[in-house]
Amino acid sequence: MSNLEDLKADVTRLLSEAKDAQAVEQIRIRFLGRKGVIAEHFSRMGDLSPEERRATGAALNDLKICCEKKIKEAADRFASGRSRGDAIDVTLPGRPAHAGLTHPINETLRDICQTFRLAGFDVADGPEIETDWYNFEALNVPADHPARDMHDTFYVKMEEDGGRREKAGEYLLRTHTSPVQIHVMEKQKPPVRIIAPGRVYRRDDDPTHSPVFHQVEGLWVEEGVTLRDLKGLLEYFLKMLFGESVRARFRPSFFPFTEPSLEVDMSCVICGGEDHSAHCRTCKATGWLEVLGAGMVHPNVFRAAGHNPSKVTGLAFGMGVERMAMIRYGIDDIRLFFENDVRFLSQLSGGT
Ligand code: PHE
């Protein structure tokens, strides 16, 4: 009898060690086969007394049923593709569902817009395919103006215009969001307080320039708006986006559509503007990052949009969203934003 108990233990142990369905089948043949271990025990029962035979027969039957059950279970386990090693562990925590993320450019764009909304600005929109007039002429950039060189422009042929407007240069992909200034002023009397986020296009392609990128334009036209408002507004904006400790620096610059014109730098968020020892790659050890173009709206721009420049003043500014995002997330190659590798994007985006 104890011999039979050992047999049962052997079967259990061998099954637990079986690596595949074939191994289980071999165990079945060894114990339950026609010439198997259990069959052999049955055949030896003729030597026993009737009482012993009854007891042994019952025990052997039990053993046989028990082995059949265990072997079938093991075979089923392999048949359904699950070995003992990777059977379902119901105590494991569930896998989180993969939720979509906001693209870092959209996230930055959203935060920029939100900051200006809090300051009373509305969001305006304009077309991406523009005319020469809106993109350049009305913004005080005449045809031979050297500033056009900075905006290496994509020109568009509009075939569906019946050939009437086929002349090269008639339409173009806007090179900045400034034409929205004109569209808005044409439609709306002062006070005007808008920002205009959107895509812009230039024939540029390198680690810090993409042929398509995003800008946010700002325009505030009202009687009595001054350069002081411009400085205060942009300083507020930079502190909201990058934190209270950020400082703003205003440098004289030139844009045809503003006078005076400024370039706005912020203290480097990576080294805090403290590291002038050639270590900081982000600000190239200058302590400052150039982030905005700005100025007071040029009288010619007011005239082009049908406003009297002696009645109103206005401030305008423009910024590159990718540049803001690169600073914000410490990225040094703009192309990473557009390759859309989820492994990269999901490191940056915090929320939904
Ligand atoms: N449009 C300018 C650019 O693309 C930025 C700018 C906007 C400058 C408004 C001054 C005022 O570089």
Ligands, deduplicated: phenylalanine
Task: Give the overall shape.
Answer: rod-shaped
CATH superfamily of the largest domain: Bira Bifunctional Protein, Domain 2
Query: Which CATH top level class of the largest domain fits?
Result: Alpha Beta
Structural class: alpha+beta
Strand content bin:
15-25%
CATH topology of the largest domain: BirA Bifunctional Protein, domain 2
Helix content range = 25-40%
Rg calc: 39 Å
Query: Which CATH architecture of the largest domain?
Result: 2-Layer Sandwich
Number of helices: 13
Write down the domain tally.
Answer: 2
Q: In angstroms, what separates the terminal alpha carbons?
A: 69 Å
Q: Helices and strands, in N-to-C order?
A: HHHHHEEHHEEHEEHEEEHEHHH
Q: Write out the strand line-up for the largest beta sheet, numbering strands in chain order.
A: 1-5-6-10-9-8-7
Average pLDDT, to the nearest integer?
88
Biggest pleated-sheet summary:
7 strands, mixed
Q: Show unreliable segments.
A: none
Oligomer: single chain
For the structure shown, list the relevant keywords:
352 residues; alpha+beta; BirA Bifunctional Protein, domain 2; 2 domains; 7-stranded mixed β-sheet; 10 strands; 19% strand; binds phenylalanine
